[in-house]
Amino acid sequence: ANTSPARLALTAFGLAIFLFTGLLSLPAASVDGSVTPLHQALFTAVSSVCVTGLTVVSTAAHWTFFGQLVILVGIFVGGLGTLTLASILALMVSKRLGVRGKLIAQEAMNAGRLGEVGTLLRIVITTSVVIEAFLALALIPRFIILGENFWMAVWHGVFYSISSFNNAGFTPHSDGIVPYETDLWILVPLMVGVFFGSLGFPVVLVLQQNGLNWKKWNLHAKLTIQVSLILLVAGAALWGLMEWDNTRTIANMSLGDKITHSIFASVMTRSGGFNLVDQGQMEPTTRLLSDALMFAGGGSASTAGGIKVTTVAVMFLAIAAEARGDADVKVYGRTIPQGTMRVAISVIVAGATLVAVSALLLLQISGASLDRVLFETISAFATVGLGTNLSAELPPSGVYVLSVLMFAGRIGTITLASALALRQRSQLYHYPEERPIIG
Amino acid sequence: ANTSPARLALTAFGLAIFLFTGLLSLPAASVDGSVTPLHQALFTAVSSVCVTGLTVVSTAAHWTFFGQLVILVGIFVGGLGTLTLASILALMVSKRLGVRGKLIAQEAMNAGRLGEVGTLLRIVITTSVVIEAFLALALIPRFIILGENFWMAVWHGVFYSISSFNNAGFTPHSDGIVPYETDLWILVPLMVGVFFGSLGFPVVLVLQQNGLNWKKWNLHAKLTIQVSLILLVAGAALWGLMEWDNTRTIANMSLGDKITHSIFASVMTRSGGFNLVDQGQMEPTTRLLSDALMFAGGGSASTAGGIKVTTVAVMFLAIAAEARGDADVKVYGRTIPQGTMRVAISVIVAGATLVAVSALLLLQISGASLDRVLFETISAFATVGLGTNLSAELPPSGVYVLSVLMFAGRIGTITLASALALRQRSQLYHYPEERPIIG
Ligand SMILES: [K+]
Ligand SMILES: [K+]
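# potassium ion complex -> structure
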């Protein structure tokens, strides 16, 4: 019973990827009417179902409308699957941890009414569709004003709303969203969609029930929103600072556009994956900053990837407690259990190991610079989708490595954390303590 | 009283660096008889006192015999200072942690007789000098056989013995040790010196008292030696695998020489810093491997740098316990206290942050590739001294950044860990637990 959540996740996502690879391999999916090579079809299927957004072929140029529809359905199904699966696992953890744990989990999930998987799935779908509908209604008029015909505008509006709320980062336009780089009517809905999508389902529920009444939020919502905002603001400030005089990106823009670009870029590292500037033309320092922001990722039980902001929060709170000399890790009048911190460390180390091993393999396979390899690797792991187009340059072996990494990044952190929490057992006896010297 | 260990360390090392910078600035220290520019004199002083081994000017070509002697004395003083300071701090931690803590620390330091700082210093000096004398006696005959005159051979023997046991990595030869790349009579003493130097004083004492009687070793010695050996063997195997077909390094060598090179390279990442092959000609993957090995570093209270092998061990044991579902972190019939794990995490995150910020600055200042910048940065942080000669290419601002990093890497991990351990206090009240969702 302990291994079932992991097995469930692997099976569900594995089957979905198998199915979508098949659909994308159909001649009807590619513009030239031929069968797309397996590594490209598989990569695109994994990238859409895992809502990563990296591409080996141009979404606009290679795929037909049918192919693009398959990708969009893949994003929709993958996004819902991620939200549902992560929520189910969070609930299972809470049930396993007993009465106190159950109360805690009800706080964390803020949902006594979420006892049933069916109910959970219904709420996830309703919430997602409602938010996506709002986003699409905001975007469609703009595409019409910009001269697209009605059905094309609807298609683009729906595509971008699903792609942004699910943090997928796929675009149906050949130049992506670069043509709209000063169009706030388009950029703001995309940012709002990505930001709310990246908070995660448990936080969205808390916001839905308590609005901005901070005191009524549970600890999970407080930590998620606080860290997300800190990363957003600090990321935008540093991004702007680093790119300010870069003539290949924003140096020649107006002050307003520079600020828009900085905020947009920072939001998108949270796992959105849309880009306004060529990521290969940014300063190497900016790519390193993006690496850090992407690795951190978004909220738990969201469509965002990475190690998750609460993981970062728990680690920093533990270090702050250590610096103050406190035995308990305290925040907002609550103590964070020791076990939670060990789960956080395990998730961080597993993520770092996955990224390091993949980067080593890709460095060997591609011969590209560490800078580019690391950026593409972390982007794949954290299902972000930003990149310097390295994926498209890789031989099939490299494409398979990135496919596995996207899959592991998507399923790994979610199942690892819950599997660890579910395995926690009580001790029958204790060994005497002995303290090795540290540092 | 809590801040005194950190202040003591900062003051002692700051004064030593000030003094050695002054000595190296003297016209008598440089071959051309001029005053060496401040950034170069300071960098060399920091590099020698912190036993790092990075250079901005050639040790053999720029410095006179007097200058080289100053560097050697800097290494000797810096090495002893590091050992003494780290040992004093470990003792202070043990005293502060009360009766149980005292017993634990006596296990860890394996020394009831080490109560007095004076005694401690005497034992550190005696042990170091005796080991260094053995190494010098092994090396001097070889230099004589190779045709050096007696006093030159003595000078080289003494220099290499001090440089290796203190994990300094400085060489008095203009080509370093490359001319001896197949000379096991020289390479083996260097490897032995670096390896034993990197284990740390508490482990050397345990070995001195109990020999190879594994059962009598304390937990600290077991973990240190075990992890050191794992890193040594795994590092050598991976290094050899990655460089096997690299014609710029070892591809054209005999099998024996390939194995020697692999083992030597792996030992030297532990903080030794001697190199047989041009680090800039290695595969990028090999530099990434070296980055990881260097960051891990050597044993606590040793002249090696990095986050230390016990820190790595504690983190992995905690993750293993989490994977098994155990509440206690157990190893060799002992439980590792929760506080120790939090200190370990703090040391790792502080080290990673220091490296990341320095790498960002140097990326900006130098315009060099991330690959080279990261390698030089981690080498400086972990006081290793391997590099692609980036230090010598940097403008003064970059040289100062690396100087600060070498200093922080040397003093930082030692004082941080003890300062944290000394601040641990008991709680008067506890907040209720609440568990955020992780991963
Ligand atoms: K994405
Ligand atoms: K060194």
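# post-check
The beta strands of chain B are 329-331, 334-336.
Residues 65-96 of chain B form the longest helix (32 residues).
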